[in-house]
Amino acid sequence: MLNTHPKIKKVHYLSLIDKNSNEYKVYKKQYSSSGGMISIDIKGGEKEAFTFLDNLKLIKLAVSLGGTESLACHPFSMTHCDVSVETKNKIGMGESLVRLSIGIEDSNDLIEDIKNSLNKV
């Protein structure tokens, strides 16, 4: 759903790594699954990312690397706010990036929350 959504520029998720890359080989060697962390680049910029975040109902805005409840954050202005813009650009972290930490809520409810929020962007 996220890979093909017209409001998403890119999805960052371990199982989506190019299967011919060295990163994929490391991933397959060290992990048994992709986990519950996913990042998406919203088309546009900070305004569009904030619109997406503001319209989430089930997924809450907070900084976390995982837990039982689904959370979202804007790394550019939250977890990495003290990192220089130059460094953020160098590592590919733009103002449109949103990180989702997926919890144990019903998957259909989470999908609907994300879809509804993307439709508001």
Q: Could you explain how this protein is built, in words?
A:
The chain is of the alpha+beta class and 121 residues long. A 5-stranded mixed β-sheet has the order 1-2-5-4-3. It is 32% helix and 17% strand. The protein starts with 7 loop residues before the first strand and ends with a helix. Helix 2 (46-55) packs across helix 4. It has 4 helices and 5 strands, in the order E-H-E-H-E-E-H-E-H. The longest helix is centred in the last third of the chain and has 14 residues, at 107-120. The model has no long low-confidence stretch (mean pLDDT 94). The protein has a single domain (8-120), classed as Aspartate Aminotransferase, domain 1, CATH 3.90.1150.10.
Q: How is the topology of this model organized?
A:
Blueprint: E1 8-12, H1 22-30, E2 37-42, H2 46-55, E3 60-61, E4 71-73, H3 85-90, E5 97-101, H4 107-120
Brief summary:
32% of the residues lie in helices and 17% in strands. By secondary structure, it is α+β, with helices and mostly antiparallel strands.
